[in-house]
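Checklist before submission:
- one chain only
- standard amino acids only
- sequence pasted in full

Submission:
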Amino acid sequence: MFSGTRAETVAELVRTAPLLDFPPGSRVLDLCCGPGLFLVPLAARGYRVTGVDLSPAMLERAEAVCRAADAGPVDVTLVREDMLTYTAPDAYDVILNVFTSFGYFEDADDNFQVLRNAWQSLAPGGRLLVDVMGKEVLAGWIGRPQAVDLPDGSYVVQRDTVLDSWRRLRTDWTLVRGESARTASIRSFLYSAAELHDLFVAAGFVDVECFGDFDGGPYDQSSRRLIVRGVKK
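Returned file contents:
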């Protein structure tokens, strides 16, 4: 669910956020790139960018975004692969997994395998950053529906429900267009900062840190996101 201004927000984030400031020419993978909102801003900073997603529809949208970039088409590699099985040994300096794209496999071991795959795909010294809605953040507003207006006049309402004693989350979306409404649901695992930190360590990462935003601020009671960063030694 992306609002019309999300692309502008992401572009500004990539330009200014300390956690997204990498050495020139870094090989950056956007894992589960979706419609490609991060791809063009990352490429504009001089990074060598790859986007991986399983959805052909999302990859088509990402390709269109890259072709229509304001500064002209950008050179981004797009790959259709499942994050559960995708590995490219030592191929990347940075792997990003953003917009709460982690934790959707029904088996907890499969979600852990995604971290192991990322570790294998990073070159020594490479970094993995995972951006999710942490349990601690979610607890502050769970139960309040969110609505996003879409450019065509329709809107989406999102409702979240905690399941299994805070182990999982069910998210329900309702798309309202005119007099019709369509619904969809998805379940995911929930992680606290401590839980995701420990998964990173178990997957082989060192120097694991938790942040409350891409500005590098601490993960505390005022945070709106949970961002965990680990390094492959």
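Reviewer check: The first strand starts at residue 27 and ends at 31.
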